[in-house]
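The instructor's notes for this session suggest beginning with a concrete chain rather than abstract definitions. Hand out the sequence below and ask the class to guess, before any prediction is shown, which regions might be ordered.
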Amino acid sequence: MREGDFPALTEPGRLTRMRPLRILIMDLYFRGGCIMKRHALLGWGMALAVLVGVLVLFPATQPVTAQAPVTLKMQASWPAGLTLYENFKMFAERVEKMSAGRVKIETLPAGAIVPAFEVLDATHKKVIDGAHTWAAYWIGKHKAAVLFTGGPGGTFGMDYIDYLGWMYEGGGFELYQQWYKDVLKLNVVAIPILPAGPQAFGWFKRPIKSLADFKGMKCRETGIAAEVFTEMGMRTVNLPGGEIIPAAERGVIDCAEWVGGVEDLKLGFHNVWKIHYTPGMHENVTTGELLINGEVWSKLSPDLQEIVKSAATETFFRWWARWQKQNADAIKELQEKHKVQILKTPDEILIEFLKAWDRIAARESEKDPFFKKVLESQRAYAGLVVPAKRFMFPAYDFAANYYWPVKKAAPAKK
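After discussion, reveal the predicted structure:
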């Protein structure tokens, strides 16, 4: 017997779902064949009659119906002109291709439906289906928000691979969902998607050589970093990315931190300031998130949920690789075309930043059990992985300095 002998039953996947019935039909077919040997015409008639009767009495299981195409409306917390937004678009393109068009993401820039910092509540209330944003914007709701972005200092020295390792191999992802669902009481699902770091220390109107140099300066900072810098003596202003340059041009702020590299070039920081310091320790593994309304998520079939998660992870690495090249090009342009002084942040300031963060983290741990739970989880994971990697991995600048020796920086202009 060949499956082609019954074309109506060879619909893709149908025989697999009808395997017990298939065996019964085969048995009847061969029995009919024996009858046919004795009474050819009668045999065929009987066989076909019995087959039709079996199909009527035992109807085939209905084929699984593919989920109808859905379009999800999502908004970012950043303008469409930034590379951060390109991460969002890359994700949307991958989801549509991987799902063969069953899921489409309508990407919207900051302010299209709600203000940049209101996308979380809008997702929870289903004003939008989801958001492309950054968890540390929600520290006003709960301070553990910053820990789900990688945290200051990478949280105990972790790099991006370490942080994703904690997320997916160290229990972090489960804590992430628990935080939104049980602590904030919000109906959203969160997935890491945007590796926007390591970030630069910032832009300044005058050189800073010590901690005393920026005390009293009024700077744009956000998230927990604003609290840390405030503890260090800086006056901070919380502004969305699109409002930084207008505030600087009006003299509202003396300095600002955004991201660094290509992001800062796109926003035009070099048109206001010519002194740029890097690196920073405030967001060296900062990670943005994809938020999806819980009800919307539950209505996606299991395979589509896996496609969304896989597309987010692929976007994380694909976009990050592209972004590093873009940052290198941007640094070259800032220095050569726009005459920006890119200077190394003094170690004294970076160390004081970590000390101030440790004090804040200790205070929050005393006040909030969940913050402490997440922080201790990160410390346990980092305590295992970070020292091992320091032992196993050569320092990045070892070979870099061999092939491209560091030139002595010219003294900063006053």
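Then share the key points. The two ends are 90 Å apart (CA to CA). Residues 1-26, 28-64 have pLDDT under 50 and may be disordered.
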